[in-house]
């Protein structure tokens, strides 16, 4: 990570308002405030990166799931002004360390990758499921 003294990395859950603000500025889909409060509190493992000067949330990533057989990496986001400094890679390294050390190796771990972020996830062993299967979501 570039200039690591400029950032504080913690295993922690972001506050709802800052979570929603970072999602928005990073171009991620909108989430409801109450639903986000519930979802964040049910995280299995969550990483945040803050600026050391003002504690502003500039990066995050979470692991969610059933706690036994199925998990999903979600909310990987780095503020556009902080991208290209290795922060997303640091988030993924911490998530993967937790997965490697705490989760049954037969559990299913997935994510939905926006391009070109798929290149980051491939560095950690993630592969595309197609053509054997396709990632899908309920569009409402």
From TrEMBL:
Annotated signal peptide: none
Every N-acetyltransferase domain range: 7-140
InterPro entries: Acetyltransferase_Butenolide, Acyl_CoA_acyltransferase, GNAT_dom
Protein's name according to its UniProt entry: GNAT family N-acetyltransferase
């Amino acid at each position: 990570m570039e200039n690591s003294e400029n950032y504080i990395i913690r295993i922690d859950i972001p506050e709802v308002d800052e979570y929603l603000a970072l999602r928005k500025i990073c171009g991620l889909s909108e989430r409801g405030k109450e639903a986000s409060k519930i979802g964040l509190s049910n995280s299995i493992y969550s990483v945040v990166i803050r600026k050391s000067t003002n504690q502003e949330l500039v990066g995050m990533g979470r692991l969610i799931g059933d706690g036994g057989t199925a998990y999903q990496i979600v909310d990987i986001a780095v503020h556009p002004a902080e991208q290209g400094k290795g922060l997303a890679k640091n988030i993924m390294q911490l998530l993967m360390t937790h997965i490697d050390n705490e989760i049954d190796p037969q559990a299913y771990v997935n994510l939905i990758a926006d391009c070109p972020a798929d290149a980051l996830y491939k560095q950690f062993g993630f592969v595309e499921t197609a053509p054997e299967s396709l990632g899908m979501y309920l569009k409402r």
